[in-house]
Amino acid sequence: MTRDDCAGLDAGDVLAPLREQFDIPAGTIYLDGNSLGVLPRAAVDRVRQVVAEEWGQGLIQSWNDAGWIEQPQRVGDKIARLIGASPGEVVAADSTSLNLYKVLSVALTLMKADAPERRVIVSERDNFPTDLYIAESLARQHGFELKLVAADEIAQAVDSSVAVLMLTQVNYRTGRMHAMAEVTAAAHAAGALVIWDLCHSVGAVPVDLAASDADFAIGCGYKYLNGGPGAPAFLWLHPRHAARMDREQLWQPLAGWLGHAAPFAFTTDYRPAAGVARFVCGTPSIIALAALECGVDTVLAAEPFGGMQALRRKSIALTDLFIELVEQRCAGHGLELQSPRDPALRGSQASFLRGDGGYAIVQALIARGVIGDFRAPGLLRFGFTPLYVRFVDVWDAVEQLRQVLESAEWQQPRFQKTSAVT
Amino acid sequence: MTRDDCAGLDAGDVLAPLREQFDIPAGTIYLDGNSLGVLPRAAVDRVRQVVAEEWGQGLIQSWNDAGWIEQPQRVGDKIARLIGASPGEVVAADSTSLNLYKVLSVALTLMKADAPERRVIVSERDNFPTDLYIAESLARQHGFELKLVAADEIAQAVDSSVAVLMLTQVNYRTGRMHAMAEVTAAAHAAGALVIWDLCHSVGAVPVDLAASDADFAIGCGYKYLNGGPGAPAFLWLHPRHAARMDREQLWQPLAGWLGHAAPFAFTTDYRPAAGVARFVCGTPSIIALAALECGVDTVLAAEPFGGMQALRRKSIALTDLFIELVEQRCAGHGLELQSPRDPALRGSQASFLRGDGGYAIVQALIARGVIGDFRAPGLLRFGFTPLYVRFVDVWDAVEQLRQVLESAEWQQPRFQKTSAVT
Questions:
Q1: A8: which residues sit within 8 A by CB, 6+ positions away?
Q2: Among the four residues A67, B11, B94, B229, which has the most C-beta atoms within 10 Å?
Q3: Tell me: domain A3-30+307-415, CATH 3.30.450.40, correct?
Q4: Closest Cα partner for B376 from A63, A266, A283?
Q5: Is the ipTM of this complex over 0.90?
Q6: Whole-model pTM?
Q7: Residue B151 in 3-state DSSP?
């Protein structure tokens, strides 16, 4: 494999034109779309339009005239196409943490009614921390136990004491991916509900919530969806739970006015909106939702080229190539693959463990224009967004990594840790 | 009083130049800043900069390099100057509904520890609905009773059964304003904590949380702060409660990762950040916070001209003039003042009740370029933001209202109700 071979792969890539949707800084190879996706070109004009025209000129009337009021549902419907959900089943709102709080609260409420003897929430010990913090908060409030286990202990842990299994499908550190349908089926067989965090899945791997018979899902707008820093998150629940919430008039705990059945009636009593609409809480940022919509559109733009299946094929090819080249060309530098080698078990990233200097190596790489990130302790993390990462980018990134390691330039003081934010 | 007299008042208004901060559509008189503030000119460029440069070019490194990570605190510190709080006591984050959920949860938790026999939350029956919905949700969860009373029944209602008094200082319908210090002192004397919703206060009337000895406060970024549609909200708690939460390591329920003491340590266990910083939950929208900061800056720009005290004097003059002119020039059309006549008891708005046609009258006014709003049932609501509303605007608005009423043009079918969003 040579750089020319990589250029050949790019030349034959039917998805290659999708890169033109983005404004990627010159000289930058961006392998951090799993942390913050790049800027869609369309977002600059669209956000300007929302600010200068819809807000500036349309003012309060834009809630009707510009469709602001339907924005959580409209963007939700677009996200639904990426995760095997139907129109009307997804809303875009709030943050991942807040959306997890909503659905986990509901899941616990349902289980307290259906199986009050089940008092355990199971999750993975190395789930993304915010999920664990929110779960611990709810466990305290509702009198549940949060039980954290290793990935290979999950099946065994989901026993007759368990109410809810809460997992992030693709691990933020290693990229290891759970088989959603199988894990869900096993948990259902054991009598538990399943919540899926799709933060590192949506836009990265094909997700089919309906076919997986999942119960609840949430996810992030600013990673593979390219929705901008701190973009609103999303939330889905299975229609059987939505119907039950309607039938029993169940609340979600963050019962804000925009989740009311008739917010502009300004009634004293809360009456939840139908279905997933009750999961909107307060007034959402219209500007942030507009940027998110542009980001989601960049992923939907792959539909004519095979959609998520085609993106997945390219993602696997990019990631396999990166792993292969690092192991060939950076051999002897103590980089140990922490991601599954089998692409079927892996999301769209590759992580390598290094005993020391990991942070500085990433900083030295960034100084050379190759942006990955570092996750303590010791993990060098590289994400591959097939919408805009090219095969030559993979080649060039590994070449830069090789030079950083061989020159030992990462040992320079300027690359050592100076900030808490990585 | 003539239009020329109004022009004379504008000519003598030291705050008049502050209007240049805004981009108000030609031909529009905007009396709805209590619903959505107008666009600060600076926001167009600033948002473009955040999108195109900080996100587009700086990418993930902008969390450090552009100071994104400190944005909730930086914007909070600016808002603190408008509400009698100190630096480090306020964060900008999430929505008003969510922030109320956080502080009311904490207040109930504190009271369950200190006075477990107190199981009542008191609020006003015509408080803004989202506050009531959130309070009802928390009352259910924590086993409290939400008791709703009329404004003049509050003092009597706060007895030895009451844990928390939760009030919006300025009523969204009538503009009636509570005396924060007196009400707080009376509630404290009765043994209750007090939460103030400042949605219709901040940027509209001087607020001094410290001098009022309030316990908790929350408020809105998109009304008088001009932060844009669905702008992030803010949250304050008294330093005595912040110190206690630190001492006792108390959580707020929405325990997301950015409220962790060390979010980038990615630890499994939640450990709250010090003081108000623990009230940040998930990753905030950086674009929305940037727009909000521009809005807050437009209010802080009044500081050299006398700040909130000067804005308040002009607000009262504008609102008094509007009431006087409506009662003179629109007499006989069934408009009945619903706001207090005494400006000391009133925020920065004037509301009139009309038995029928209120919605259509507002629509006909909007068609003439005068934007107020309608709140069911029957309330015509006009807000006066002294940063950009002129005395001639008040004259012209009343003249248009007079013509709408005298011509009966509001009876045209096109002005009748067609949408749920008002």
A1: none
A2: B94
A3: no
A4: A266
A5: yes
A6: 0.98
A7: helix
**Predicted local distance difference test score (pLDDT) of residue A85:** 98
Cα→Cα distances B249→B63, B118, B137, B276, Å: 27, 23, 24, 13
pLDDT, one tens digit per residue, over B234-256 is 999 999 999 999 999 999 999 99
Q: What are the backbone angles phi and psi of residue A125, rounded to the nearest 5°?
A: -60, -35
Residues of chain B with CATH 3.90.1150.10: 3-30+306-415
Residue type, B65: D
Q: What is the pLDDT of residue A116?
A: 98
Task: Say if A230 is an interface residue toward chain B (CB within 8 Å).
Answer: yes
Q: What is the rounded distance in angstroms from the CA atom of residue B237 to the CA atom of residue B110?
A: 13
| E runs forming strands in A19-144 | 29-30, 90-92, 120-124
- Residue A29 is which amino acid? I
Q: How far apart are CA B220 and CA B233, in angstroms?
A: 5
B419: pLDDT confidence band, cut at 50, 70 and 90? Answer: low
> Dihedrals φ, ψ of B293, to 5°?
-60, -40
Residue A58's Cα: distance from chain center in Å? 33
CA atoms within 13 A on the CB side of A46: 20
Query: Is A98 in CB contact (< 8 Å) with chain B?
Result: yes
CA neighbor of B91 nearest in space, from B284, B332, B299? B284
Residues facing residue B195 across a β-bridge: B166, B216
The SS3 of residue A230 is coil
Distance, C-alpha A30 to centroid of its chain: 17
- The interface residues of chain B toward chain A in range 39-78, judged by CB-CB distance below 8 A, are 39, 43-44, 47-48, 51-52, 54-57, 59-64, 68-69
Which strand (E) or helix (H) includes residue B184? helix B180-189
CATH 3.40.640.10 domain position(s) in chain B: 49-299
- A352 touches A371 (CB < 8 A): no
- Residue B317 exposure: Cα atoms within 13 Å on the Cβ side: 19
Is the minimum CB–CB distance between B239 and chain A shorter than 8 Å? no
Cα dist from A201 to A68, A208, A214, A342, A357, whole Å: 27, 11, 14, 17, 29
Cα A268 to Cα A258: distance, rounded to the nearest angstrom: 14
- Asked whether the beta carbons of residue B288 and residue A30 sit closer than 8 angstroms, the reply is no
Tell me which residue has tokens 């949430």.
A218
Q: Does A230 contact B28 at a Cβ distance shorter than 8 Å?
A: no
Judging contacts by C-beta atoms under 8 Å, the chain A residues touching residue B64 are: 419, 421
- Residue B418, pLDDT > 70, answer no
Contact B56 A25 (CB under 8 A): yes
| B350 CA: distance to closest CA in chain A (Å) | 18
Query: What CATH code is assigned to B3-30+306-415?
Result: 3.90.1150.10
Please, which pLDDT band fits residue B421 given cuts at 50, 70 and 90? low
Architecture of the CATH domain A49-299: 3-Layer(aba) Sandwich (3.40)
Using an 8 Å Cβ cutoff, are B252 and B99 in contact? no
Distances (CA, A) of B371 to B36, B376, B382: 11, 17, 8
> Tell me: the pLDDT tens digits for B333-386?
999 999 999 999 999 999 999 999 999 999 999 999 999 999 888 999 999 999
Cβ neighbours of residue A278 closer than 8 Å, sequence gap 6 or more:
A245, A251, A252, A255, A259, A272
Residue B326 CA: distances (Å) to CA of A147, B29, B30, B330, B376: 65, 16, 17, 5, 20
Q: pLDDT below 70 — which residues of chain A?
A: 418-422
Q: B111: helix, coil or strand?
A: helix
Pull the structure tokens for residue B57: 């070019």
Is B359 catalytic? The answer is no
Contact B265 A140 (CB under 8 A): no
Q: What are the backbone angles phi and psi of residue A148, rounded to the nearest 5°?
A: -105, 130
- Would the CA dihedral through A354, A355, A360, A364 be positive or negative? negative
